[in-house]
Amino acid sequence: MTERLVDPARALVLSLKPRFAEAILAGTKAAEVRRVMPRITVSTLALLYASGSARALVGTCVVRSVARYPADELWRLHGADTELLRTEFDAYLQGRDSAEPLAAPISLHTLRQAHGFRPPQSFAYVSHAQRRRLLAA
Q: Of 45, 55, 110, 116, which one has the fewest beta carbons inside 10 Å?
C-alpha cells in the first residue's frame, strides 16, 4: 500500500460473505453497509476475510469514508454500490474503493495454526504488526 494511512496504529478486519468480498475486489462494490459502525479514521487499511465456505483472507482495501444515514437516504445515495437487492438491504437493516486481491487466499486453518486467528463476526481491529503477520501466513 503506497497510500498514507491516517490510522498508522491499526487496521480493520472485515468479515464478509464471499460474494461481497469478491465484489469489492472486482470493483463492483464500493459501499459496505454495517449496522454497527467501526470506530476508525479514514483512510484505514481493511483486510477482507471471506466467511462461509471460503474461510480465508482474500484481499485488502482502504476505507476512505464512513457515514451514518437513515436507511432510505443510505439506499438512495449508495444502494447501487452495495451489491445488495433492496429486499436484502431492508432485511439487513430491519430493527436497526481501490481493492487488492491477495496472490492466494490464506485459509482459516493456516491463520489459526500460525497466529491463533479467530475471524470476527462483523469486524475487528488489528495492529499493523498483526496485519503483516496475517498477510505473511
A: 116
- Dump pLDDT digits (tens) for 4-16: 777 888 999 999 9
What is the residue-wise DSSP string for 80-125? GGTT--HHHHHHHHTT---EEEEEEEEEHHHHHHHH-----SSEEE
81 grid coordinates: 454500490
Query: DSSP secondary structure string, 1-27?
Result: --SPPS--SEEEEEEE-HHHHHHHHHT
Cell, residue 76: 438512495
| Cell numbers representing residue 112 in the block | 489459526
43: confidence class by pLDDT, cuts 50, 70, 90 = confident
Question: Using CA atoms, how far apart are residues 56 and 106, in angstroms rounded to an integer?
Answer: 5
pTM of the model: 0.74
Q: Could you read off the pLDDT of 62-81 as tens digits, one per residue? A: 999 999 888 899 999 999 99
